[in-house]
What does this fold into?
Amino acid sequence: MGAGKPPRARFVNYPLGFESGRFKDKTNQLEIVREALTGFADITSPGIVPLDFEWQAGWDMLNEREKGKLDNRSPRTTEPQYQTEDDRRAAQER
Amino acid sequence: MNPTPTEYIRQTRESYEKLGFEPYEWFHAEEEPELAPLAKPLSESKLGLISTAGTYVHGQVAYYYKDDTSVRAIPRDTAVKDIRFSHIMENYLVEARQDPCTVFPLEALNQLESEGMIGELAGNYFSCMGGIYSKNRVINELIPNLEKSVSAEQLDLLLLIPL
It folds into this structure.
């Protein structure tokens, strides 16, 4: 993130996919967004300011994911990749 | 104490090389950013959101994975159950596909507006495919697309949540 030199940024040291909070933890999600937004006024010189949140949900699943064991990504094509087949039908009916 | 952050950049570099590509050239901003002073406090401002998580709404066309530079408008009153994701890094979105607010904080933003912390939320948020392998296409296609979309919302402040 530093290479992009954002004018105002907050960083939360959570795994990718949890940028705005832990899974089904509405309190954590609200507090992360609340704290992030304080950066608009509190950051007075360009830079990245870490948020004071700690990942407590366990790393086992994430470690497996990072090793590629849970990586079932679709190939890079120009075919829209729908989350569900129902999404595909709904888009095609429009 | 937090565990060591995952080395996503090293992993991406290795994955890229395994695919037979030239070494990945990460973007490095050449210019120092300008810090625009706030025209007014957040509590009096209109706030927008850009997510690079490949967010779309049930009924919209999903993104494709080969350098898709299109943009989706996500109406702020979209039901959370209708939020979807299609992103080349879909392995990082397993949980978000069950609880979209882990990357696209619809509920938190609504709550903070109702509390008065945010003056007003944009009528539409925006999303795009964050995994594009061409810097030129990001600069010459995606950014103008986003700029045009966001400008129409007449925002005071913009929150970017990258994936």
User: Anything to note?
Assistant: Residues 135-151 of chain B form the longest helix (17 residues). The longest strand of chain B covers residues 46-51.
